[in-house]
């Protein structure tokens, strides 16, 4: 019995040591992606918010420049609201394997990411990764202080890259919390909690167009929060 327990313990320790390789695979997959421009539509299905769909143009430049251009007040929810393939770098987190399982008919893992620098990240994440294609399929913020945020991602093939066509956000958070969603209050809706869905669809990708750094300094472009 002791030998069996030792074997199980050794395999588990080894698996934990290898957990970060799944993040490595994602980073490698998108290493050639320099930039993209995409049209975005945001649809709200939230009890406390009555607002029409929002449209915008999103600009991304590796590794972490992101801007949004819109004729109206626009925001992206802080957790999972936009796609940045460099967001989850292994050097920034303690990475732990939770389980191997099957997700949407494909091999997958679930990882727990705890930030090493709480000034850079103030929360932990649980990622569901399709290991066959090295794609993040779900991002879940570890429940804390009565808040839950979960993002589910669908992808399409654009040029040589898998990029999101849709991100569905499930929200259950206290109203007024600093989550990058404070703009909700501008619609005059009062509620103790913000619950419901946000559906973000992406279309008309333009990839590796050579975006200048100056684009991200222009007035009228609002940085996602």
Instruction: Give the helix tally.
Output: 2
- Whole-number total of structural domains: 1
At CATH level 3, the topology is outer membrane lipoprotein receptor (LolB), chain A
Termini, distance in Å?
53 Å
Superfamily (CATH H level) name = Lipoprotein localisation LolA/LolB/LppX
Q: What general form does the structure show?
A: globular
Low-confidence spans: 6-14, 178-188, 220-225
Provide an overview of this structure.
By secondary structure, the chain is mainly β. It has one domain (15-222): outer membrane lipoprotein receptor (LolB), chain A. The protein is 12% helix and 47% strand. It is built from 2 helices and 11 strands. The protein has an 11-stranded antiparallel beta sheet. Strand 1 and strand 2 form a beta hairpin. It is globular and about 45 Å long. The protein starts with a helix and ends with a strand.
